TrEMBL record:
Residues 355-484 form the GGDEF domain. NCBIfam families: GGDEF. The keyword Methyltransferase does not apply. It holds the Pfam family SBP_bac_3. It comes from the Bacteria. Its EC number is 2.7.7.65. This is diguanylate cyclase. It catalyses: 2 GTP = 3',3'-c-di-GMP + 2 diphosphate. Keywords: Membrane, Nucleotidyltransferase, Transferase, Transmembrane, Transmembrane helix. InterPro entries: Diguanylate_Cyclase, GGDEF_dom, Nucleotide_cyclase, Rev_trsase/Diguanyl_cyclase, Solute-binding_3/MltF_N. One of its GO terms (molecular function) is diguanylate cyclase activity. Gene3D superfamilies: 3.30.70.270, Periplasmic binding protein-like II (3.40.190.10). The chain crosses the membrane at residues 292-311.
Length: 498
């Protein structure tokens, strides 16, 4: 560098130090620091500079809550926010340094109005819905739990809400589930209530057929209110409670801070809070009157007994629910939902360990004619007999599922394409030679595909489905397989199926 350029560089350096450039420097410095998370205090989660600046300007977060939603949350007689959500929020507050301040209201409706008009910056815990997205943004879930359908004892199991016609469902006004049910199930007549206990009461009194309730809240209130004529009759996948903090749309930085606090809650802390609110309250007052003490003891035992009874009952019901939700009622085979729960994982495992995995997609030929000629009941019997034939001719380790109406999918582990074709031909032969009690002879077509390293569950089943379509197109009663060379994971291994 010559002396002229040294001079120019030095002059440029001093120019940058002039007061007019301070702004530029501080902006650069700020941007640099803002991109690194810093530890604000030993007890707090790491926050970026932007978040720290926000916190010092807005240390208090005003929160509106549901004043009557125990054990999730409530406002007690001392105007204090209590319940599971209150404890989780307090934990988020202590981890982030935010001071959570309750904005008291008399109802959830009032809380929604206060939030919309900006009287409180946050709503403590609610599901994210399109309507609420109009004025709120949402954090990650603070708490998750399933919603269950509650009916009277004698009601049968509900597997499909869409098929319930002219049934009445009591739902609390202004809740996410009320919004989603109005949109998704026009077949149901919705009865609005002010609170969730009121909805349960209507079902218990026979004035509504069903209600939808969080499993945690249902167990709590059935126990507390003694609604022993009620039971859990079903669960609808996709309608779980994912309770998040809802905040005003402008507060992106606040959402970041809250998310850090939520992520920092450990499983143990979460469990302690749940245990605290879902276990029995013990009376700690000193009792000198022993008659009263005995009475309380018996009452406590009765409550414990009832709780255990209900916990066991809910447990059994939920086990039943999960099995029924994954089983096809007609054929007793795994249904599509059941298969989808494991298919992606099975496929990933096969890809990871380079084991061959194939699927056979099968469909009964001209099944519409069977129904038309012999009737729907005869058609149902064909489906049942066909399922049994297939099941009996497969290994225990293979999974067979009723994929749709007259369509079946077999998932074959440790099986190459050639072996799966062989198996499919064997299955088609069994069906071809079987005499179906109601209709005589039936044939089936099949498409076979082996998983390749790039497949996901959807691409694999789609490939098998289009090969099945080809089998139909080529005359039915046959197996179709891809002819191109597979870049497969374990063609070289080719273990014997038999
Ligand atoms: N009995 C009975 N029929 C069903 C069931 N599910 C679907 N189906 C009937 O299966 C038939 C399927 O008809 P299509 O899709 O036209 O197929 P197909 O007649 O088998 O003709 P191809 O598949 O082309 O050989 C329809 O008539 C459905 O009503 C069921 O659970 N029971």
């Amino acid at each position: 560098m010559n002396s002229v350029s040294v001079f120019a560089a030095t002059r440029h350096f001093f120019t940058l130090l002039r007061p007019s450039s301070y702004r530029l420097w501080s902006a650069l410095l700020y941007l640099l620091l803002a991109s690194y998370p810093l530890k604000a205090a030993p007890t707090q989660v790491p926050l970026t500079v932007t978040e720290q600046v926000y916190l010092s300007a807005h240390p208090v977060l005003s929160v509106c809550v549901d004043p009557n939603w125990l054990p999730f949350e409530a406002i007690d007689q001392n105007q204090k926010h209590v319940g599971i959500i209150a404890d989780l929020l307090a934990l988020v507050g202590s981890k982030t340094g935010l001071q959570i301040q309750l904005h008291p209201t008399n109802s959830w409706d009032e809380s929604l109005i206060a939030s919309k008009s900006g009287q409180c910056l946050a709503l403590s815990a609610l599901n994210q819905t399109p309507e609420r997205e109009q004025w709120l943004i949402f954090t990650d879930p603070l708490l998750e739990d399933p919603n269950v359908l509650i009916t009277q004892e004698q009601h049968s199991f509900i597997s499909d809400v869409a098929s319930l016609n002219n049934k009445t469902i009591a739902l609390q006004r202004g809740t996410a589930m009320a919004e989603l049910f109005t949109r998704d199930f026009p077949n149901l007549i919705i009865i609005d209530t002010d609170t969730e206990p009121e909805a349960m009461q209507l079902v218990s009194d026979g004035k509504a057929d069903l209600t939808l309730r969080s499993l945690i809240v249902a167990a709590h209130t059935i126990k507390k209110a003694g609604w022993y004529n009620l039971k859990v009759s079903g669960q609808i996948p996709g309608y779980e409670n994912k309770l998040r903090i809802g905040i005003s749309q402008s507060e992106q930085t606040l959402r970041g801070i809250l998310n850090r606090g939520i992520a920092a809650i450990s499983e143990q802390e979460r469990q302690q809070i749940m245990d605290r609110h879902l276990s029995l309250q013990v009376v700690s007052e000193v009792v000198t009157d022993y008659t009263l003490a005995y009475g309380l003891g018996i009452l406590l035992l009765a409550v414990i007994g009832t709780s255990l009874f209900w916990m066991r009952r809910l447990n059994i019901l939920n086990q039943q629910l999960s099995v029924m939700a994954q089983t096809d009622a007609l054929t007793q085979l795994t249904n599509r939902h059941g298969l989808n729960l494991t298919l992606e994982k099975d496929l990933e495992r096969a890809q990871r360990y380079q084991h061959p995995l194939s699927v056979i997609m099968m469909d009964i030929d001209h099944f519409k004619q069977v129904n038309d000629q012999y009737g729907h009941l005869a058609g149902d019997k064909v489906l049942v007999e066909c399922s049994k034939l297939l099941r009996d001719n497969l290994r225990k380790s293979d999974i067979i599922c009723r994929w749709g109406g007259e369509e079946f999918l077999v998932l074959c582990f440790e099986t190459t394409q050639e072996q799966a074709v062989h198996l499919a031909e064997l299955l088609l032969g069994k069906i071809r030679h079987h005499h179906f009690s109601e209709v005589g002879k039936v044939t089936v077509s099949a498409g076979v595909a082996q998983a390749n390293p790039q497949d996901n569950a959807e691409s694999l089943t789609k490939r098998a489905d289009s090969l099945l379509y080809e089998a139909k197109h080529n005359g039915r009663n046959r197996v179709c397989v891809a002819t191109e060379n597979l870049d497969t994971m374990a063609r070289s291994k080719e273990p014997n199926r038999e």
